[in-house]
């Protein structure tokens, strides 16, 4: 077992023991262990979506366009309409796999805030959101279900593949 899932499992167990009293999401994590601890609410709220059919039941709409090095975005319109940044409720889930939804695997999550809803780039987990002037949004990715060699919060993950 690689150390990342083990750290996540330990963080979830510790958080459960303390009734999920994690540090505020806007606090800048001091080291990698702090980041994984701060991600506990994200794991707790998105883990059930590892089984792709549950994404639709959670309000996440499927897409059939795979973005290279990101995968398929499943977006929750209700969460997207609310400019609140909540670690436990990312606006999008990221999947990779075949064109058939039954083969898709959850690889990450994404928080999205329309740039018209805020005056400055939001921050979460000590990370500043990326501004996309074309889509007119701020976004932050977290590759919590598939390791990203370029970094946990980097927008693109070279290990995420689209079907040929």
Could you characterize the architecture of this molecule?
This protein is of the alpha+beta class and 164 residues long. The chain is built from five helices and nine strands. The protein has helices at residues 3-17, 32-38, 40-46, 53-57, 77-81, and strands at 60-61, 66-67, 71-76, 92-96, 105-114, 123-124, 127-128, 130-132, 137-142. The strands form two sheets. Strands 1, 2, 3, 4, 5, 8 and 9 form a seven-stranded antiparallel β-sheet that branches. The protein has a two-stranded antiparallel ribbon with strand order 6-7. It is globular. Mean pLDDT is 84; it is low at 5-29.
Query: How many strands in all?
Result: 9
Secondary-structure element series = HHHHEEEHEEEEEE
Oligomer: single chain
Instruction: Report on the biggest sheet.
Output: 7 strands, antiparallel
Q: Radius of gyration in whole Å, from Cα?
A: 15 Å
Number of separate helices = 5
Distance between the termini: 30 Å
Which whole number gives the mean pLDDT?
84
Overall geometry? globular
Any low-confidence stretches, pLDDT <50, length ≥5? 5-29
Gist of the model:
This protein is 24% helix and 23% strand. The chain has 5 helices and 9 strands. The strands form 2 sheets. Strands 1, 2, 3, 4, 5, 8 and 9 form a 7-stranded antiparallel sheet that branches. Strands 6-7 form a two-stranded antiparallel ribbon.
Task: Set out the fold topology.
Blueprint: H1 3-17, H2 32-38, H3 40-46, H4 53-57, E1 60-61, E2 66-67, E3 71-76, H5 77-81, E4 92-96, E5 105-114, E6 123-124, E7 127-128, E8 130-132, E9 137-142
Antiparallel strand pairs: 1-3, 2-3, 3-4, 4-5, 5-9, 6-7, 8-9
